[in-house]
Amino acid sequence: MPNITLIEAVNLAMASEMRRDPNVVVLGEDIGRNGGVFRATLGLLDEFGEGRVIDTPLAETLVAAMAIGLSTQGIKAVAEIQFSGFLYPCVDQVVNHAARYRNRTRGRMSCPLVIRAPNSGGIHAPEHHSESLETTFAQMPGLRVVCPSSPARAYGLLLAAIRDPDPVIFLEPTRLYRLFKQPVEDDGEALPLDSCFIDRSGADLTLVSWGAMMHDTRLVADQLAEEGISAEVIDIATLKPLDMATILASVAKTGRCVIVSESPRAGGWASEVAANLAEHGLLSLFAPVMRVAGYDTVMPLAQLERSYIPDTDRILREVRKLFEMAPK
User: Fold this and answer.
1) Which strands, in side-by-side order, build the sheet including 144-146?
2) How does pLDDT run across 160-210, given as a tens digit for each residue?
3) Mapping DSSP to helix (H, G, I), strand (E, B) and coil, where does residue 294 land?
4) Which listed residue (128, 129, 215, 280) is catalytic?
5) Upper half-sphere CA count for residue 53 (Cβ side, 13 Å)
6) Which residue ranges form the domains of the chain, and what is each CATH number?
7) Residue 97 among the catalytic residues
8) What is the pLDDT of residue 298?
9) SS3 for 72?
């Protein structure tokens, strides 16, 4: 079982599913001969040819429209958008057509496509290359939104997304693309969509996150363990539909919750989780739910990203406030 990075796991999943299912095609800007801006599709053109690995013009609206057209005619399209900030031109096609296709046809037809995009910051690029758009798409009925946090989860969740009969927005945390390696077996086994993963069990505190921020959240849990605080760590993974049952069960056990997100604080998905906890888990809480998130500004350029993206210090500060209000 090889140790591979998250970007290699994405490549492995696409190649595996293309071998298994001849109806799977990939398309996007520079994804053929160039292998994609992050090399996620490297080698696929040589193995599967131009009929299944399609270089498109530099037009995101066209990429989305092609993927939808193919997917309504029996082809499973996996479209790459170079950065999540470039997804805005796709919104008309994705929201008004792909997301509504099953409802529009009263269940007679579906639109089994995946739109992949690097998401969030960490590479010191201009703002259109560093946005966290998961909440934007999670608010749109008819879409699944998935954001993996490790190579193994990227592999299994992407397989599941490609096999899903409805449209999936698959947001890959750019900062984690090559941050660490993990053993991943190319066994074709998908991981379940629509379910949270419990990274580790704990009794004193529930830490909830997804995507790139899971890395920092795990580091915080490690530090808290050294201080005698047992944190349960939950990786949401599939933001929409949201598996609140797992989160509520954890908070019923721990009584405390901190939600960690890189996207802007106002109206972010952390707020959705917190609202659900207020509605359905209030009597389990010893203290208010805390949110650690990005700021309500455009992602700053270059090194200033470090002041925007939540780090372990910011997360620990909120955890300590929580225990000041409700001691262990």
Assistant:
1) 53-55, 24-28, 76-80, 114-119, 168-173, 144-146, 238-240
2) 999 999 999 999 999 999 999 999 999 999 999 999 999 999 999 999 999
3) strand
4) 129
5) 23
6) 3-183 (3.40.50.970), 197-325 (3.40.50.920)
7) no
8) 87
9) coil
